[in-house]
Amino acid sequence: MMKGVQLVTVLVFALACSLSSAYDPSPLQDFCVAINDSTSSYAVFVNGKFCKDPKLATADDFFFSGLNTPRDTSTPLGSNVTLLNVDKILGLNTLGISLARIDFAPYGLNPPHIHPRATEILVVLEGTLYVGFVTSNPENRLFTKVLNAGDVFVFPIGLIHFQFNPGHTNAVAFAGLSSQNPGLITIANAVFGSNPPINPDVLAKAFQLDRNVVNYLQKKF
User: Fold this and answer.
1) What is residue 25's predicted lDDT score, i.e. its pLDDT?
2) What is the pLDDT of residue 49?
3) Which residues contact residue 200 at a Cβ distance below 8 angstroms, ignoring those fewer than 6 apart?
4) Quick one: which of 188, 174, 171 has its CA closest to 108?
5) Could you say which residues of the chain have pLDDT below 50?
6) Fewest C-beta atoms under 10 Å: which of 21, 157, 196, 214?
């Protein structure tokens, strides 16, 4: 009986260790630059991307220019996210990291969303941001902070979080994410703008809303 318990303990520990490295596992080579041409005889499929022969890699595979340029914030939400993931910098493949620039107009919002595959660390370069995240059930505890230029805040992987510019001037922030492809689920878009739409009766019950309100929200998204 004791041996059986020990075996189960070892198996559970092994499973936990494997799950702990389930996100962007460490590469077994210096780099594995992604290549869009899967028919190339030099391509090898690794971590969701085909990789070019390392001997054919160049400095441009690890380079992006123009992140210093302000982005257009004349959007419905008053914000603009420029994400540099593996699709923009091919050399990020297998390296487990990406970067984003976020521009905010006055009262601009990066709405509540999650990154299913990444923790995010954000630094404010200009202006002021009101940021926060909410923990999982059952507590649903809200952590918030007002950030000024030079301040840093961390959003744990998979938790709903947001950034809002409460000021009268523009704001700019940069964020590092712990995945080459962090993913994005914007809560409102996913719930009210799914394709095909979620049955309004389901959403009316879940949010304790009138069905007409749900229909209105689904038309918005």
Assistant:
1) 64
2) 78
3) 211, 214, 215, 218
4) 171
5) 1-2, 5-22
6) 196
